[in-house]
Amino acid sequence: MTTRAGFVALIGEPNAGKSTLLNRMVGAKVSIVTHKVQTTRARIRGVAMEGDAQLVFVDTPGLFKPRRRLDRAMVAAAWGGAADADVVVLMVEAHRGITEGVETILEGLAEIGEGRTVALAINKIDKVPAEKLLGLAQNLNSRYAFAETFMISAERGHGVDDLRKWLAGKLPESPWLYPEDQIADLPMRMIAAEMTREKLTLRLHQELPYQLTVETEKWEERKDGSARVDQIIYVVRDGHKGIVLGKRGETIKSVSQAARAELEEFLGRKVHLFLQVKVRPNWLEEAERYSEMGLDFKDGN
Q1: Is 14 annotated as a binding residue?
Q2: 242 is in an annotated binding site
Q3: Hey, what CATH topology would domain 188-300 get?
């Protein structure tokens, strides 16, 4: 049997649907999905099987114009993921079309794309009429020589199987890179932290989405098969701590319950989750926090 394996980088603007597509391809919730931009910080890899091919997805942070160190590190991680991949998929939202952000990405692709297989996936196709879709596809293909164009709805699954089959055929012949039953190479500690951060992001909305981070401090396997997970939520000021805790601790309680439920479903066993909130004014400037998120601190310079 000839097997294929390789890396597929999903790139695009924040909120283009990369995480939703990754989860649809892999068949499990590996990457965080929220309606907030810039929620994917680390290069989370999901592993999908398609026939004799193993596709290892690199879910890159959304590409945008960076302002702070964290932003710069995220953008560097995204382009690094694309440069290292065997195949790149640019995702563009059908209803938003060619934005300034998409223009910037097309310029970046021209720099790294030489000799690389790049596909175009126009996502959220249910939001615009067919003739507009065709016009957008033609316009984008006139600006960059995409190997193939796919019309998809990551949320509903339309066109996703065709894209996965095509990607599988483009990967190099290679032994599989991961055991067949392994869906992500991200340590469980980080996946658990991302789940909690997602619940915080959804709960707190605009209040402090990027001024906090979550770390799994301890992971203890218990004799009864359950796991005890201790996490710290770092915020940058005292006032933020109060927001995260909520009135009479209601916010953190509901976040903890939601994160625990999702973690239990993911692991298929009981989890005891304990959350603490700590103020660290400079966490955005600490190299250690970046490595916890799978980012390179130096890339933020």
Answers
A1: yes
A2: no
A3: GMP Synthetase; Chain A, domain 3 (3.30.300)
The pLDDT value given to residue 41: 44
Query: Rounded to an integer, what distance in angstroms lies between the CA atom of residue 214 and that of residue 256?
Result: 12
Annotated domain spans of the chain: 4-170, 188-300
36 marked as binding residue: no
Confirm whether residue 117 is marked as ligand binding.
no
Q: Does 59 carry a binding-site annotation?
A: yes
Any binding-site annotation on 246? no
Q: Could you tell me the pLDDT band of residue 167, with boundaries at 50, 70 and 90?
A: very high
In which band, very low, low, confident or very high, does the pLDDT at 218 lie, cut at 50, 70 and 90? confident
CA distance 118 to 120: 7
The reply, when asked if residue 187 is annotated as ligand binding, is no
pLDDT in tens, 222-240: 889 888 999 999 888 888 8
Is there a binding annotation on residue 70? no
52 labelled ligand-binding:
no
- Report whether 125 belongs to an annotated binding site: yes
Is 18 annotated in a binding site? The answer is yes
User: Is 19 labelled a binding residue?
Assistant: yes
46 is in an annotated binding site: no
Say whether 123 counts as a known binding-site residue.
yes
- Nearest residue to 105 (alpha-carbon basis) of 87, 89, 125: 89
- Percentage of the chain surpassing pLDDT 90? 31
- Round to whole Å and give the CA distance between 95 and 40: 22
Q: How far apart are CA 101 and CA 78, in angstroms?
A: 14
Tokens describing residue 254: 């509901």
Q: Is 16 annotated as a binding residue?
A: yes
What SS3 class is residue 279? strand
8 A C-beta contact, residue 10 and residue 62: no
User: Do 4-170 and 188-300 agree at the fold level?
Assistant: no
Check pLDDT > 80 for residue 45: no
What is the pLDDT at residue 32? 47
Tell me the fold of 4-170.
Rossmann fold (3.40.50)
Q: What is the pLDDT of residue 33?
A: 44
